[in-house]
Each structure stands twice: as C-alpha cells, then as structure tokens.
Amino acid sequence: xxxxxxxxxxxLEFDSDLFKLEVTNMVxxxxxxDNNPILANVEHCHFYRTFxxxxxxxxxxxxxxxxxxxxxVKVNKNGELTATCSPAIGTKFGDNHTHKIxxxxxxKLQKRKINEDAQRxxxxxxxxxxDK
Length: 132
Prior knowledge:
Radius of gyration: 21 Å
C-alpha cells in the first residue's frame, strides 16, 4: 500500500481562559441510600476553561461531586474577564448552590494535531481508523 499523501491545515492557535469557581458548600448524601439520606454540607470548588485543548468552546465547568454549572463569561467596561455560574446542575436533595468565580489566567493553545509519524505507523498496521 503506498504512503498516503495528506495536506494538513495550518495550526489553529486560540486563547483559553481559566477560571476557578471558588470554594462553597454542596449538599452530599453520606448515607448508603438515596431514599434514606444522611445529608452534610461539604466544601468543594470547580475549574472552568473557555475552550478545551481541542479548540471546542466549553459551556460548563468540570464535574465535582456529581454536578456541574453553566458558566457565562463577559468582558466588563474595564476590559477585564468576569464570569457567573448557574445553580448546580445534576444535584439531588434540592441543592442549588452557586459559586463566586475568579479569573486566573489565559493561555495561547494550539489545537491538538495528529502526529504524522504515528499516523503513518498506525496506517501501516491498520490499527486506527483513517481520516475521512
């Protein structure tokens, strides 16, 4: 089988902003059963990036304790990034907490690329699906 000649698009570089949803309490069942809960307030936090390393826009923070939050990022009149979060999504027992959100930093990321040498070996071994 001849070597495949591919043409790759130029690298995609983008900004990904990192936020921390500050520590607050969530309601957690410390019991073994949902129908007979032993509820406690447990501290937790989340992190949120505007774009993942594949360049996909993110709308929710990382899951912690079985729940997440929608996050909305805005730029204020001073040009600073700010964010707000929705009440908890995926919680039980009526827990609708929110978090204060702090902007931490931004990174210039490059969209993940296929390693051409690894793809060539995989093609020869026929172990990975071909690009379509």
